[in-house]
């Protein structure tokens, strides 16, 4: 959750999982989740009394992407003593959740059956404790996921399930190629779904560690799934944080969005391709997908373009972008003049440019990360028969590490810019501050927090 030319294989899953976590990419999953093809194998349980943060990763080499040393959480629920207490109290904690489960439709018999003998998997705490971070650019990420192998397998999967995808498109008005792309990126078309028992994983996180309030809802939702017979308990396996199925649903997302598309009386997104694809399309439709429209378009910007216009909050009709000289590559026609879109520059002024429609936002409702949504849209187009992006990704681009992002924020703040919290997380305030600084020193005002901006700040420009 491999390389630039092949699909994501299991041998590389651990490293790619760290990438996805660092980018905050996890399908329908929780913010801590690593799902699908990127899921790591179940680890050996670790006793809480003996728990210690994992050792730092070795120094990166030229053949391996840089991965910063894992950072232990300072959260009070993640100390060795707190983990020991939580492990000892696990059975009582689970029992205390019965009223909430009963209130949400779990039967008394079902609760007793599925919680009897339930033990925590303390090995999950190691994954929750770690905060790894890959320093990959959006271009590297998209190129890695939209591989020739994944494109080919997507075409094969759609051909093998043609009736399902036709019915999904007809029922929900969602582009079936986008649905297939989500399947491909989340679980490599079902070949890598994760092996953690979802009940145990969510129960562990509901009663141990720093995310207990969030995961109590997930655990209760998982109990409902097995109690009502949608998915057999033995089949309900997924990522360490509880995401499961062909397109990786968290239990609460399953309860909200899953559908019985094959009509057998069960919403089984694990074993039924029809249910999984229908449920994914339903989620996209609920996220605002508009039938008959694309997710977005690669565009070429004119010389001396005002990069201040590259702002998610500046949506304009296509005809206005056209009037400003924005064009599609190779003379391709622009879409309807009334369709609204905003300009996205995922690599800044030196990389490819895209006009994003409301359907891009629908993909973001599945996972709120631009790089993820761009990879989904591009893979969908490639499966359909489209070509690669015309404009190259910058070859000299380098993603900032979390420490460098925090340094960039501190240096901007020291100059009087409002960056919000200095935490290494580059939110909207930081990007506005970057844009204002770029204007002040004569750099392209694309708001992209690049290494060049940091170098400029360091040099005192």
Automatic annotation (TrEMBL):
Start and end residues of each Peptidoglycan binding-like domain: 404-457
Annotated Low complexity bias: 50-74
Domain of life: Bacteria
Signal peptide: none
Renumbered residue ranges of the record's region Disordered: 50-79
Domain Transglycosylase SLT: 90-381
Xref: PANTHER family: LYTIC MUREIN TRANSGLYCOSYLASE, MEMBRANE-BOUND LYTIC MUREIN TRANSGLYCOSYLASE B
Name used for this protein in its record: Lytic murein transglycosylase
């Amino acid at each position: 959750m491999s390389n630039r030319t092949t699909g994501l294989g299991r041998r590389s899953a651990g490293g790619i999982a760290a990438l996805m976590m660092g980018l905050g990419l996890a399908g329908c999953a929780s913010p801590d989740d690593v799902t699908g093809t990127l899921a790591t194998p179940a680890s050996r349980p670790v006793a809480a009394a003996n728990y210690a943060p994992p050792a730092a990763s070795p120094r990166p080499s030229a053949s391996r992407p840089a991965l910063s040393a894992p950072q232990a959480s300072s959260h009070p629920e993640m100390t060795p003593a707190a983990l020991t207490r939580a492990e000892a109290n696990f059975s009582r904690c689970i029992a205390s959740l019965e009223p909430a489960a009963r209130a949400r439709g779990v039967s008394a018999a079902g609760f007793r059956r599925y919680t009897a003998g339930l033990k925590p998997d303390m090995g999950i705490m190691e994954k929750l404790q770690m905060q790894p971070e890959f320093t990959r650019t959006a271009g590297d990420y998209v190129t890695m996921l939209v591989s020739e192998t994944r494109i080919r397998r997507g075409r094969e999967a759609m051909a093998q399930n043609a009736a399902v995808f036709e019915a999904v498109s007809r029922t929900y008005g969602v582009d079936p190629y986008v649905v297939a792309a989500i399947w491909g990126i989340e679980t490599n078309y079902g070949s890598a779904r994760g092996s953690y028992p979802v009940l145990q994983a969510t129960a562990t996180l509901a009663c141990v560690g720093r995310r207990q309030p969030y995961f109590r809802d997930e655990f209760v939702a998982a109990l409902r799934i097995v109690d009502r017979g949608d998915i057999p308990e033995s089949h309900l396996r997924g990522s360490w944080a509880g995401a499961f199925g062909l397109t990786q649903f968290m239990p609460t997302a399953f309860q909200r969005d899953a559908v019985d598309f094959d009509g057998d009386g069960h919403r089984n997104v694990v074993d039924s391709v029809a249910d999984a694809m229908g449920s994914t399309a339903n989620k996209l439709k609920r996220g605002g997908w508009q039938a008959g429209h694309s997710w977005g378009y690669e565009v070429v910007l004119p010389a001396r373009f005002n990069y201040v216009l590259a702002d998610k909050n500046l949506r304009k009709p296509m005809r206005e972008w056209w009037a400003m000289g924005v064009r599609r590559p190779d003379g391709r026609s622009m879409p309807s003049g009334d369709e609204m879109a905003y300009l996205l520059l995922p690599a800044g002024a030196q990389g490819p440019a895209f006009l994003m429609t409301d359907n891009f936002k629908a993909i973001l409702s599945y996972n709120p990360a631009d790089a993820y949504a761009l990879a989904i849209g591009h893979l969908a187009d490639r499966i359909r028969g489209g070509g690669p992006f015309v404009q190259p990704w910058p070859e000299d681009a380098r993603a900032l590490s979390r420490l460098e992002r925090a340094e960039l924020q501190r240096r901007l703040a020291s100059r009087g810019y409002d960056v919000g919290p200095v935490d290494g997380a580059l939110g909207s305030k930081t990007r506005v501050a970057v844009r204002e600084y770029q204007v002040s020193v004569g750099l392209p005002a694309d708001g992209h927090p690049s290494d060049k901006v940091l170098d400029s700040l360091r040099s005192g420009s």
